[in-house]
Amino acid sequence: CFFHYTTQLGFRNITAPQKKAVEVFASLVTTGPKANAWWGQGVYSVRRAPDEWPDVATLIDNNYRNMHKRDVESKGREAADEEYSSRVAYCIPLLANSAICYDVSIQQTPEMQKEGKPPGVNLAGKLLNERGQPERQCVVIRAQREKEVGHASAVLLDT
User: Which domain of life is it from (predicted)?
Assistant: First the structure.
């Protein structure tokens, strides 16, 4: 089981039954000024459930270390903490076949392979884990066809 942390709006969009599930998986951008998929396309997740984090600050550090640090410097700690706390306020558990899961610390996504980035180095050349810093985790789940994605509620209703 993996866990995707998101905002309230992200949670509503992802769990909306009228949305095609594949739309959610295609929402990340890898190039250009709006790039936000530093490890490649897919849903970014971790193996730690909400109750396994010692505090919200550790979760924010895991998911947004470089961006949060940048925003603390430009906006101040209070504003940055408030913004990033909202980004991890909701959690969606994901069940995924290991064939579509990429633990980027040990396995390259197709985009990382294409750009010649080794495991643990993102498309911008930044390290997932740096000496002297708490270890982070990131698992990219890539579903490219509608049949690979389903809402758990649909499965529960069928049983």
Answer: Eukaryota
- C-alpha closest to that of 9 among 94, 93, 90: 90
What does the pLDDT look like over 37-51, one tens digit per residue?
Answer: 789 989 999 999 999
* Domain ranges, ordered by start, for the chain: 2-158
CA 141 – CA 4 distance, rounded (Å): 10
Bridge-based pairing of strands 2-6 and 90-94 is antiparallel
Cβ contact 29:39 at 8 Å: no
> For residue 93, what are the contacts with CB-CB under 8 A and spacing of at least 6?
1, 2, 3, 49
Q: What is the pLDDT of residues 48-78, one digit of tens each?
A: 999 999 999 999 999 999 999 999 999 999 9
Say what the pTM is: 0.83
pLDDT of residue 18: 77
For residue 46, give the nearest of 59, 30, 35 by alpha carbon. Answer: 59
Give whole-number Cα distances, 135 to 17, 45, 58, 60, 115, in Å. 35, 15, 10, 13, 24
Q: Which residues contact 77 (CB under 8 A, 6 or more apart)?
A: none
Give me the pLDDT at residue 145, please: 59
